[in-house]
Amino acid sequence: MKNKRPTNSFLVDVFLLIFLLLFFVTAVFMSLNGRSVLINAFYLGITAFLILLTYFLGLTTGLIINLLFVVFQGGLLTYLAVFQKRVDVATGDLAFWLFMPLLLSMSFYGMAYYGLQLQAENRRLKDELVHQSVLDSETNLRTLVAYLRDTQIFTKTAAKYQLPLSMMTIKIRYFNEIRRILDHDQLDALVRLVSRVILSSDEGLTLAYLLSRDNLTWGALLFVDAAEARETARKIKTKFAQELPKVISLHDIDISLVIGVAEYDPKKMKDGHDLEHAATHMIQYDVGNDDVAKKY
């Protein structure tokens, strides 16, 4: 995969240069052939139409349509040269437009195709970089990758020294509905607010994580039992409700947190995934009276 991106970039440049060269040749031909302005304008329109068909319908369909045009144009040239004795027209204006639409269509399609491939590769590399990162650049919270690494250590420590270890999974209540009414800036403000509230908690919280940006999920590991972790969750909710009205872009939106808590059980849980899934599963039971966590 390492060689794919330079290859795509190189091919985009090559097809772009070919397309520009062909377009330049076409422009020069039309400027020097002023006696057939209408014919050239007509074929230029057909060429643009064939380019669009090739781009939107795909290479195979576009190639077939262009070849049909070449056959038609070749038949027209043969008719003019043999039956109408118009050799000057057949070998001049119309001959130029025999293959030029095909060449322009193929070069434009190649440029567009490899350009899209390059964009897809860039997105893939960006997603891969984000996935492999252990620290979220905007919130300074550790990521899912870091969480899985950390839990390998913490679960072993908890089991060895018989320490309680709990996991909190934190989400926005009715996030799918709320996301529809938030713009990009408001969403960023919400992410920063929740992250700041979690980081400001000193209730035995060991490490905090931003587990997912797509579905806005935070996590936290605590060396306490489930009961103490639930108390910490309640305080985080209260703190969030107090801080929400202070954010101007969010003060008129009813937003609250839902938090699931699970305690690590070495007999039932193999790794960090199991612990995180257990905490996420407990979110469905966070349906109590959240008046303290609501914005009035």
Automatic annotation (TrEMBL):
Its EC number is 2.7.7.65. Keywords: Membrane, Nucleotidyltransferase, Transferase, Transmembrane, Transmembrane helix. It is an enzyme of class 2 (transferase). Signal peptide: none annotated. The chain crosses the membrane at residues 12-32, 38-57, 64-82, 94-116. GO terms for molecular function: diguanylate cyclase activity. InterPro entries: Nucleotide_cyclase, Rev_trsase/Diguanyl_cyclase. This is Diguanylate cyclase. It comes from Candidatus Paralactobacillus gallistercoris.
